[in-house]
């Protein structure tokens, strides 16, 4: 099996059209009873869609193969159910896990023929419901009508995200690394929010019971007033005991998180180093269009939008005569802001944006306000709607809260730890208000299915009005980047080189490989000199290069080169050179600096680049993933490898010692 998988991946890496056969088999096997439980058909569909998005695969042919495989697989399961009606329950795994078959029977009895369509999107039931349809005597005409309809909906739902991903990587990689990062951040926020909301709500009941039992056990061993009150609140006979337990756990976790962040901010270690790296990273991917997009994403958390939501929710609670809940919520909004302002003046932490003079940002009052408003609305709405609508409510609220926080980080309005601290402190207030509301009204509240639509309408109208009055446009000079420090060649070789780091620093501030090259040259000059010496541009991230990570007998040069971060800034120039074997390669990475050298007679100053040289070797012990590891990074310097000394048009100005790291200063000169 392992050898067959090796051979299949090798063929796919060289001939992406074979993915059509894989798509058919994945869709077919995923729908076959029992087997479909272990087949990752969705992953195969996404990968095939990514290849189609890059132009390596025909999208129409891919849809045809996926639909045909899905229809055939469900048809096979339906035939098994029709053929072995009486014996199917005695076969494995239905014999050892009868609850699976019973759940499928209940689902089919509830939804009838439509269950064939619905089950296609539900993992545990996907391959079982067609079997139940066969055992229940569903006619072939009706079954195949639903079967084909479900396949027509299922295939695009699983292939199109891959197509969008592949096309985005293809276009973004050709336009700008910044575009790739912004797309990945925004897509990750949406995807994680919906998956997280779905996971949390699906397990909320079990978690509530577990938390309630834990707290009840603690209370039983404490005979004081607090213990008796906790036992009374967590009585299983009370309809809200689970929700009260969850709210109590949120308060404890949020307090632990806030005080942990506060300790790191006061001591300056280690979260503060992450703050600097995150800020530098986001500043390195800023662009005019990015400013416009992030400004628009921040509008659902603007003061006018928050005020409109608070007013709408207040009118709602007045209509329901929930005076105490309204009072608690408004008090939470007011007192949380007062507490945050007090903490800000006590800690005196300035924002990264130097233009915001006199402002203090720990914890972030803006993030806290957004969490208090949207968090409480999510609590109110999820109690009034079904599970599916609750997933969308929680996910949408999370997307807004994270997007607003990302926007503030992107524009340098506050640090990463400020956002975490503000969100944690606000979560305490939201949990306390929810705890109080549930305690006073533990019964299930009447359904209000229109309220999510109303709140969404309020947000959309508010954002539209703000866009009409003041559309988000990048301000002149808002793009990052300070004026470079101009120096002469002699100043650089005498002292300026010491101001540049000797080692690469990761997001947490840990020291990595040496930065052994300081090169004064333009981007075009660096590329032309290196290519003439046999260096090639590092393989870009694409669907095909990612596929090579799991391909057997791949060479090190064919694998993608990741843009490493130095203090949050990605390497903008990456070049590779073949090693002595197919499993080895040398990698040169360059980072920009804030320094430039003004040479005599030059029309403009030439930027200085920091570079690292790493020798990598392919490591296959973790098959099926090909891993590249750096070999002796401390000795992979110019002194030992000397790949640049013979470059035409390049002069070695000096060789320095930077705390034990031999640093070479280079400059380009006309041929």
UniProtKB/TrEMBL annotation:
Q: Where is the LssY-like C-terminal domain?
A: 497-617
Q: Where in the cell is it found?
A: Cell membrane
Q: Which residue range or ranges hold the Phosphatidic acid phosphatase type 2/haloperoxidase domain? A: 360-433
One GO cellular component this record assigns the protein to is: plasma membrane
Cite the entry's keywords alphabetically.
Answer: Cell membrane, Membrane, Transmembrane, Transmembrane helix
What is the membrane topology noted in the UniProt record heading this document?
Multi-pass membrane protein
**Gene3D superfamilies per UniProt:** Phosphatidic acid phosphatase type 2/haloperoxidase
Major subcellular location class: membrane
InterPro entries, alphabetized:
DedA-like, LssY-like-C_dom, PAP2/HPO, PAP2/HPO_sf, VTT_dom
What family does this belong to?
A: Belongs to the DedA family.
Protein name (Swiss-Prot/TrEMBL): Membrane protein DedA, SNARE-associated domain
């Amino acid at each position: 099996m392992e050898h067959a998988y090796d051979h299949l991946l090798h063929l796919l890496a060289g001939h992406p059209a074979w993915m059509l056969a894989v798509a058919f088999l994945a869709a077919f096997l995923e729908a076959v009873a029992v087997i479909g439980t272990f087949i990752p058909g969705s992953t195969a569909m996404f990968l095939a869609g990514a290849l189609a998005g890059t132009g390596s695969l025909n999208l129409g042919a891919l849809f045809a193969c996926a639909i045909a495989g899905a229809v055939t697989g469900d048809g096979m399961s339906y035939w098994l159910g029709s053929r072995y009606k009486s014996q199917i329950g005695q076969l494995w795994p239905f014999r050892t896990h009868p609850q699976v078959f019973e759940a499928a029977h209940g689902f089919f009895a509830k939804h009838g023929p439509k269950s064939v369509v619905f089950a296609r999107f539900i993992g545990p039931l996907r391959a079982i419901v067609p079997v139940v349809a066969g055992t229940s005597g569903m006619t072939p005409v009706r079954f195949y009508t639903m079967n084909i309809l479900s396949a027509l909906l299922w295939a695009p739902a699983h292939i199109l995200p891959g197509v969008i991903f592949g096309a985005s990587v293809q276009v973004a990689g050709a336009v700008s690394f910044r575009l790739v990062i912004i797309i990945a951040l925004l897509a990750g926020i949406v995807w994680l929010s919906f998956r997280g909301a779905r996971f949390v709500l699906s397990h909320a009941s079990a978690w509530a019971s577990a938390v309630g039992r834990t707290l009840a056990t603690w209370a039983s061993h404490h005979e004081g007033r607090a213990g008796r009150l906790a036992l009374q609140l967590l009585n299983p006979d009370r309809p809200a005991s689970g929700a009260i337990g969850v709210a109590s756990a949120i308060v404890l976790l949020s307090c632990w998180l806030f005080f942990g962040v506060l300790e790191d901010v006061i001591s300056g270690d280690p979260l503060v180093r992450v703050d600097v790296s995150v800020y530098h990273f986001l500043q390195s991917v800023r662009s005019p269009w990015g400013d416009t997009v992030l400004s628009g994403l921040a509008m659902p958390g603007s003061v006018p939008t928050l005020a409109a939501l608070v007013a709408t929710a207040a009118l709602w609670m007045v209509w329901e005569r929930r005076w105490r809940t309204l009072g608690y919520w408004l008090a939470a909004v007011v007192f949380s802001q007062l507490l945050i302002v007090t903490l800000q003046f006590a800690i005196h932490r300035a924002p990264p944006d130097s233009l915001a003079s006199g402002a203090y940002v720990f914890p972030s009052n803006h993030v806290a306000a957004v969490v208090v408003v949207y968090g409480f609305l999510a609590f109110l709405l999820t109690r009034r709607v079904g599970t599916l609508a609750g997933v969308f409510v929680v996910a949408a609220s999370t997307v807004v809260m994270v997007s607003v926080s990302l926007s503030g980080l992107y524009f340098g309005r506050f640090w990463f730890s400020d956002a975490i601290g503000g969100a944690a402190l606000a979560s305490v207030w939201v949990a306390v208000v929810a705890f109080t509301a549930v305690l006073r009204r533990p019964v299930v509240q009447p359904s209000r299915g229109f309220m999510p639509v109303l709140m969404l309408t309020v947000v959309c109208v508010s954002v539209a009005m703000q866009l009409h009055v003041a559309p988000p446009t990048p301000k002149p000079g808002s793009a990052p980047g300070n004026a470079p420090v101009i120096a002469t060649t002699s100043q650089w070789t005498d002292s300026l080189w010491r101001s540049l780091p000797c080692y690469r620093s990761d997001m947490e501030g840990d020291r990595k490989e040496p930065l052994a090259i300081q090169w004064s040259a333009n981007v075009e000059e660096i590329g032309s000199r290196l290519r003439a010496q046999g260096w090639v541009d590092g393989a870009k991230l694409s669907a095909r290069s990612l596929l090579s990570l799991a391909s057997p007998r791949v060479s090190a040069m064919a694998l993608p080169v990741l843009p490493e971060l130095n203090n949050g800034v990605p390497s903008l120039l990456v070049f590779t050179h073949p090693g002595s074997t197919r499993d080895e390669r040398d990698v040169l990475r360059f980072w920009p600096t804030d320094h430039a050298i003004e040479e005599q007679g030059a029309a403009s100053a030439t930027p200085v680049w920091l570079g690292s040289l790493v020798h990598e070797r392919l490591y296959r012990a973790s098959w099926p993933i090909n891993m590249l590891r750096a070999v002796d990074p401390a000795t992979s310097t110019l002194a030992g490898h000397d790949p640049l000394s013979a470059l035409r048009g390049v002069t070695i100005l000096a060789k320095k010692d930077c705390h034990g790291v031999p640093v070479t200063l280079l400059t380009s000169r006309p041929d």
